[in-house]
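Budget justification aside, the reviewers requested a transparent look at the raw inputs and outputs of the sequence design task funded under Objective 1. We therefore reproduce one unedited record. The lines immediately below are the structure tokens for a 140-residue chain.
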């Protein structure tokens, strides 16, 4: 099925100046960028986005990191976009990410792990709506 996934290029990868390289990987693997915006998240915005992790021990560090600099937020659309994007990202912990994945190539640690991607259709819908009103998603 054609799906939409929410993707975030995190502050570490924005600082490394690799937005274009990461976009190229999406595009050359059949994912279309149908919405995008650069943002510097407020603490409240980051906490709201990661609300499902609120009780996890890494929550405070995660939020601190996500507000440490600008991020690039996009919606990826394509056949099986959620799984495809997860495959391109690699494992959450870059030390465990397969060679050639975004995290293996651009990430430094489990916190500074270059990208976020939706993990299921239900969370993808919530995450896309969190950043983009329907009229700002340019589906083709
Ligand atoms: P992300 O896909 O953005 O979702 C939650 C983030 O929490 C995750 O990527 C990691 O960057 C971060 N994180 C830090 N520690 C952990 C952990 N032990 N397990 C999962 N995620 C973690």
């Amino acid at each position: 099925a054609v799906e939409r996934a929410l993707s975030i290029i995190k502050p570490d990868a924005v600082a490394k100046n690799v937005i274009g390289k990461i976009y190229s990987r999406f595009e050359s693997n059949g994912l279309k960028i149908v919405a995008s915006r650069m943002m510097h998240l407020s603490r409240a915005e980051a906490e709201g986005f990661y609300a499902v992790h609120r009780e996890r021990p890494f929550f405070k560090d995660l939020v601190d990191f996500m507000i440490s600099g600008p991020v690039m937020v996009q919606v990826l659309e394509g056949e099986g976009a959620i799984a495809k994007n997860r495959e391109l990202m690699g494992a959450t912990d870059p030390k465990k990410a397969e060679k050639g994945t975004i995290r293996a190539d651009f990430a430094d640690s489990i916190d500074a792990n270059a990208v976020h991607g939706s993990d299921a259709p239900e969370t993808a819908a919530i995450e896309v709506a969190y950043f983009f009103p329907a009229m700002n998603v340019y589906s083709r």
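DSSP finds seven helices and four strands in the chain. The mean pLDDT is 98. Computational costs for records of this kind are itemized in the attached budget.
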